[in-house]
Amino acid sequence: MVQRQLKCEETDRSTEVREAALKLFYQYGYHAVSLRKLASELGLSAGSLYAHIESKQELLFEIIESTQQALNYSIRRELKRAAQRNASLLDGFVRGAISHACRERRHLLLGIRERHSLSAEQQRCIEHLRQELAALLNQALGTQLRTLQAPASAIQVMTQSVLTTLDGFLYLPEQALSVERAVKVFAAMANAAVAEILD
Asked: Which residues form a coiled coil (predicted)?
């Protein structure tokens, strides 16, 4: 019982550390935030912070990695739902991306802005997750484009175009569009781009 309580407290503290780091990294930038500043935000001494993190860079990596994993999971879930309803997989992909972006906008923006601050190995891990995301989009686009006999190069161009467009959603002012309206707008843009490339 005591062990379970200690583990819960440790998990809670790790979550607090990650949330405080996200807030500060997002607000000031990764390089402008010292461990002393992070510790102060948490009411800890700088030395005791190492009981909760391996390093500042590892903390940034954990935030970016878990955000990308959660995004990929959200999209997989929506693709599965779309397939079960015989709905457009592209619309499902957009719904998963937009709804996740609305929940974790700061996390995703931090990942875009600060990815370069990661080590080469950490960047490769994130790139692998981004490739998984592209593969999910290829799956959604491929179903639609293969039925229209689009070449593989067209699918690749569309994949990059749609991912770039969805990243652009993050830069809109918060609450500019409701989730439902954003899904409709961005799905319409993606579908219009598909139609254009096939013209």
From this structure: 119-146
- CB-count exposure of residue 101 (10 Å: 0-12, 13-18, 19+): buried
Can you give the residue range of the structural domain that contains 13? Answer: 1-53
Task: Give Cβ neighbours of residue 93 (< 8 Å, ≥ 6 apart).
Answer: 75, 78, 79, 82, 136, 137, 140, 162
Radius of gyration of the CA atoms of the chain, in A: 20
- Same domain for 96 and 173, yes or no, is yes
Look at residue 152 and give its three-state secondary structure. helix
Residue 115 sits in a domain whose CATH number is 1.10.357.10
* 4 and 94 in a common domain: no
Determine the Cα–Cα distance for residues 136 and 42; give it in Å rounded to an integer: 38
pLDDT tens profile 157-181:
778 888 888 888 888 887 778 888 8
Q: How many domains does the chain have?
A: 2
Structure tokens belonging to residue 7: 């583990």
Q: Which residue has the higher pLDDT, 74 or 138?
A: 74
Written as six digits, the tokens of 38 are 């992070």
Give whole-number Cα distances, 91 to 155, 191, 192, in Å.
16, 8, 12
Residues 110 and 136 in one domain: yes
Contacts of 166 (CB under 8 A, 6+ apart): 94, 97, 98, 101, 186
